[in-house]
Amino acid sequence: FPSLLYEGDAGNFRTYRNAVQAGGTWHKLDYYGGFDALRSSNALPQDEYHLNTESANLGYALSGTTSLRVTARNTNAAVGLPGPYNFNALTNDGKQSDQNIYLSGTIDNQTTEAWHNLVRYGLTRKREQTAQWYPAGVPIAMGNDATFTNYYGLPVRIQGANGYSAVGQVLMNYGPAFGGVYPNSSDSANNRDQLYFQSDFRFTPHLTGLLGFRYMDERGRYNNPAFFLHEDLERTNYDYFAQFAGDFKNRLFYTLSG
Fold it and tell me: I need a surface site. Which of 30, 50, 54, 113 has the fewest CB within 10 A?
């Protein structure tokens, strides 16, 4: 029968979480789904955080010997990048976001009592973005003619374990004259598709053979328009294998593979 579970909690820094799960069976179908959301403002300004996760697991009995299963997971996260606050006494205005998708589909077939076959497709999509909109910090003119500007944190005293201390202002962001570009952003992606096949046969209760093949296509990308960076990479991989495993009178066990 269907089951439903909800849970939630909350705390300081405007932190709360909500999660719900549902699962059950219906005729030849079994199903599960879940959702979880976490939010927090954290202790520092411009350091908000959120994470959403969705997952699903669906199975269907096509026949008494063949089944189909699909699993999926998706996450979306974003967090501020305040920087080393103890050295700056100010927070930067950066942000990082991530989106990850994982999916697989499997057909499993028990062809005969001794012969089993499996085909699986896998997918991965991983993406990341970073951004900064303005140069946070105290502007301080640089150079003999004070025409260049960099951005520094507030005066901070740092004391080491040996008792010595120093007072100063830490550089937070470079001005345009020193290569600083605002706003600026970058994004990267890592995508993968994979196909896997396996066939195994039980010759006797003491000997099993297995054959398999795997193909993978990977694609990567990195972009940073502010600095005119654009990189793409793709590669394909494949491998195949064979294995025999068995035992002799349930005392000597062996595996031969390549």
Answer: 113
Cα pseudo-dihedral 172, 178, 184, 186, rounded to 10: -90
Give the tens place of pLDDT for each residue, 217-253.
999 999 999 889 999 999 999 999 999 999 999 999 9
Count other C-beta atoms under 10 Å from residue 90's C-beta. 23
The closest of 62, 126, 66, 55 to 97, measured between CA atoms, is 126
Q: How far is Cα 190 from Cα 188, in angstroms, rounded to an integer?
A: 7
Helix (H, G, I), strand (E, B) or coil at 1: coil
DSSP letter assigned to residue 88: H
Helix/strand/coil for 227: helix
* Rounded Cα–Cα distance for residues 145 and 143 (Å): 5
- Which parts of the chain sit beneath pLDDT 70? 146
CA dist 59 and 52 (Å) reads 24
Query: Helix (H, G, I), strand (E, B), or coil: what is residue 178?
Result: helix
Q: What is the pTM of this model?
A: 0.84
- d(CA 25, CA 57) in angstroms, rounded, equals 12
Q: What is the DSSP letter of 86?
A: H
pLDDT digits (tens, 9 = 90+) for 147-170: 789 999 999 999 999 999 999 999
Give the three-state DSSP class for 85. Answer: helix
